[in-house]
């Protein structure tokens, strides 16, 4: 087995055979990434096309991702097969001084199921950690898919892959009663699952537990009800609800950037190290350009305070043209001076109605929330979301 860093291609060239090595290698990485997520979820709701994954690695100003791969020789003169990879993402604060830069690097390791428990993951992780340290990072973080709690809610079925002996994540179903909001805490992590066992074996500590929840959009009556009953109340309290698809309209870009700047500081982070993020209109526009390259279109609903004309809260949903059946809840934030008035749940509900109108083919909306974020978990429950998986965050000092 050999470990090496990939040269990422500028673009994927699949028009000739054999494909140029950087294209062929990157395609193998994305196939492996998609295999691993589909085995966990039992569905294709987390499929990322090679084009979108490449754009995600290279087109953002505030984070760059590189890939170390493990190769296993194949017989004959065929190029070696990629059996595992480590994705190393280095966040960067555009315009910030050196001492205000993020200290953390994010790492994600995946190994083909036929090659596990042979030290491949460990070798990849060692390489990624060493590179993070070479690049001046002192903290490593990782988010993993840990336990699938409710396969039925995500439409899971068995995943068949020819010629391999694969186990899916469809192991014992631990049902969370619909009426209870899940607790925070260590006891919610399935410690014997590969991700947790691997993280613990390499000195990573549990820094936060997130719940993944899903809303069945074919039965999103709860959300529609909240949207209908709440919109009038918002207007009475002096807020106008506005919505858009894609780039933020020019007149709201300044206050939108202000809200995005609050997100990193105000979303619960558990024990995770974070640095302050500064957002202005150029950063917002750069992010919007990167999203377009990644095939990602945001659907946004925001509340405008009529007395100041400023946006004071927003909620957005991520959609991909090549993934019509699934959408992902993005940020939801309400400015501190406007909290406690039910705006967050209303913004989410109205945005779900917008999603249904704009993307009628979408079946499931996923969201990830910190287990200690009781307010948002209760709001989700009101809208009809059910918890489906645990998603722990891990951290280690380099
Ligand atoms: C987690 C993952 C990367 C491990 O890859 P791997 O090549 O099997 O890892 P290694 O062989 O280097 O395992 C190193 C140690 O981790 C622990 N470990 C890894 N998988 C384990 C499992 N299924 N059960 C229990 N312990 C496990 C063990 O302590 C193991 O040492 P040992 O084999 O000597 O007992 C792999 O299972 C995978 O791709 N999972 C899906 C993606 C994922 O969850 N990634 C999260 C990591 S960022």
TrEMBL record:
Enzymatic class: transferase
Domain N-acetyltransferase: 24-192
Keywords: Acyltransferase, Transferase
SUPFAM superfamilies: Acyl-CoA N-acyltransferases (Nat) (SSF55729)
Highest taxon in the source lineage: Bacteria
GO function terms (MF aspect): acyltransferase activity
A Pfam family this chain is assigned to: Acetyltransf_1
E.C. designation(s): 2.3.1.-
Protein name per Swiss-Prot or TrEMBL: GNAT family N-acetyltransferase
